[in-house]
Amino acid sequence: MTAGVIRTQRPSARQRAVGERARKSLGRRRAVNGVMLGVLATAAVITVLPLLFILGHLVTKGATSLDLAFFTHMPTPVGEAGGGMANAIVGTLIIIGLAMLFGLPVGVGAGLYLAENRGAWLANSVRFLSDVLNGLPSIVMGIFAWQFLVRPMGHFSALSGGVALGVMMIPMIARTTEEMVRTVPTSLREAALALGYARWRTGLTIVLRTASAGIVTGVLVSLARVAGETAPLLFTAFGNQFWSTSVTQPIAALPLQIFNYAISPYDDWHRLAWAGALVLIALILVISIVARVATRARFDMGSGD
Amino acid sequence: MAIEVKSELAGLADPRPANAAPAVTPERTRLAAESLDAWFGSIHAVHDISLPVREGSVMAIIGPSGCGKSTFLRCLNRMHETVSTGRVSGRVLLDGADIYDGGVNPIAVRKHIGMVFQRPTPFPTMSIRDNVAAGLRVMDGHVSRRETDAIVESALRRAALWGEVKDRLGASALALSGGQQQRLCIARALATSPRVLLLDEPTASLDPASTQSIEQLVRELRGDVTIIIVTHNMQQAARISDRTAFFLAGDLVEVAPTESLFTSPSDPRTEAYITGRFG
Amino acid sequence: MSPTVLTADPGAGTVVRIHGRHIGDRIYRGAITFFAVCVPLLVALVAWEIAVAGWPTFRHFGLSFLTSSDWDPVKDRFGAAPAIYGTLVSSAIALVIATPLAVGVSVFLSEFAPRWMRQPVGFLVDLLAAIPSVVYGLWGIFVLLPLLRDPVMPFLRDTLELGSTPFFTGPAYGPSMLAAGLILAIMVLPYIASVSREVLLAVPRAQREAALALGATRWEAIWRAVLPYAKSGIVGGIILGLGRALGETMAVTMLIGNRQEISASLLAPGYTMASLIANEFSEASSDAHLSALMAVGFTLLIITIVVNAIARWLVWRVGGGAASKAL
Ligand SMILES: Nc1ncnc2c1ncn2[C@@H]1O[C@H](COP(=O)(O)OP(=O)(O)OP(=O)(O)O)[C@@H](O)[C@H]1O
Ligand SMILES: [Mg+2]
Fold it and tell me: Tell me: domain C62-326, CATH 2.120.10.30, correct?
């Protein structure tokens, strides 16, 4: 056994029989331990670095192009200075709202069903297929919504974008709802039933309300996830240079606008893309932080009165 | 052991307060189980039990753990069938009407037969007031806000909780102590004026002081409400009940006036149990 | 007080009021069952719509749709091989880079890091998953590509002389398989890391303590006791990351160069299935072109479903319910 730096750094050498291990000096094994600690810590640093880079660039490049006009003005043609993304911001909010409209009832309802019918074959298949749905690429949701809604309707629309995003929210909402409803003790359910509550009333006014903080968190997390989705909107919401709030018409969206500006050749638009990205990230962070706070509140178990 | 129980009973011997229950006709049966059997899937948990309970009286059910006390109690307000594997046969007569009759809605039964569980179960998202009023929301017919307030107050008074919570009715029910939460649950059950109150080991998770206040409460409600209480504590049964039923392995071994059951049990198994030889 | 309510005392023989039976309950059960059934129906609907739209292409080209490199919308000839190749290669690059980092950071956080560090660093890693694809793409175009173009690619090709292998030849434009792989690595990292972390947390304490009690150092305990136990779960996490990488669209579209060519060189532009759809769908004018893109979408859908099913099965085997939450 020749000792050597190289050898000690090779983790595979660690997988040896007990007898051989006993012969190794404790000092060397400690050194390996220390080196590996260093390697792992480095992995952690390298992992976090891109995040810091990206956030750093977003803030420096985005903040310089961000002004009030960005929020209140419409996009300007190439070459004209100024301009904003008022329509895209409003459009994103409308699309998210539509997504909630479709995703929330189906997600919460399916979650309730899953929690109340554990072990039933239907529940197991729904759970499995909900995972399948969750894993589908967002571009696939986009072409699905196009084929299902845009093609028959004959034109792009905010509605089809909302449906695409809503479908993507369903598995996430269903999963958190199921988990949160399961944390509601059976005793609470029985107390309500014993008072003469019907099952439906127990489900909606006692179980769902008790689990609501957690469900709200789940819904917010899923909102944050779909708020930045672009691919499902490419052929559904499509984007719109003009002001439109109609759900049956093409509508602008922040992620779409960022994409179009980013791949354009104009510096002005690049700046707007950065500003838009900063706003989008800020929106997502705000939703996520609200979600975290809501989770916290759940564990503190406030009055909720 | 038996001697101790006797001395407990001695203190209980005084006649009930005269104002307890003016409307009670002494021997009328309020609730009666007739040939009741209950199963969990293939487990036969309650065997052919017949047990009448007089109006306004307190019936205690004792017996070793797992002998079917809770299951029996839950058959009396049709809660047993909420367990997915639960199955019941036999009859339960509430004022002469079978609650298991084909046309009877279990939800209506539960509105007439209140229940309080071993662990306090306040609804965590509701205030103290809303907890007490929870049952009123599902009563037939509209209950106005004023009426609700009045009923909440009177239920809390009867549950001996009014003084402690009257200044914070809007606060979360979770802010109460365990004993207060349990009395809140009793108030919640009383608010709908049930004909029968089922208590499943209501003091099992409480400290001695809270236990005492619940026992006091049961004594005060006697005559007013028909109470069936499951308890592991024989002294408690002796202190608060008129009659006591002894269950063993799903069978009703013996039911008798509390004093005579504890002083001169007729079945050797009852005697073995109350003298602490098993269970 | 309302004594009327409290003393209400129906006389003997009062029949308990009979209600309409469980109407509300039936509606409630019906509604939640309906919503639950919506999920499988939606999956079926998505697969059906896309399959039907892609069917003409599959019928016309058969297997050669997957193996041919000839993609010419003008002449109505469609072969998706370059896109499939690009999808696999960019995802593979992503996994090769992301796996050691993700597993490293999870082991670090679950086994070594001081308590105060775990939550915030874990949060930062999770935050990587919160950044939208299009923002990664934007950052990639304006920060990553210039970096690749100037120091990185020439360095790899010339200084390290990797140019002598077929994998690092050709001009350093920037938009390339390598750029797409790098951005994908950053994007799938949080998924692999979060599954790995859950799986590591699901390893029983006894596994670790038994090794430590025998005098192992912490690293030895991790290497001999913890990692072998968590292995299949971590592999599940990696495959899950693969599922994400395969379907990732925007960032890849913005960085891969979008060229229908199979090239061994990672410095050369390429295409993925997702970016092909994203790029050509709105411009597709002929039915044949649309159908071909739908067929690409269907292929992608099937691949991701298979990959995700494998991943879930692996993770479920180790951690049961707890670890599969992270998926
Ligand atoms: N959900 C259930 N599924 C199957 N069997 C059950 C279930 N609940 C209770 N049992 C069984 O039914 C029998 C009676 O249980 P029950 O809860 O009525 O006993 P108990 O007398 O109330 O006991 P304890 O004093 O411990 O509360 C027991 O043998 C128990 O194992
Ligand atoms: Mg019990």
Answer: no
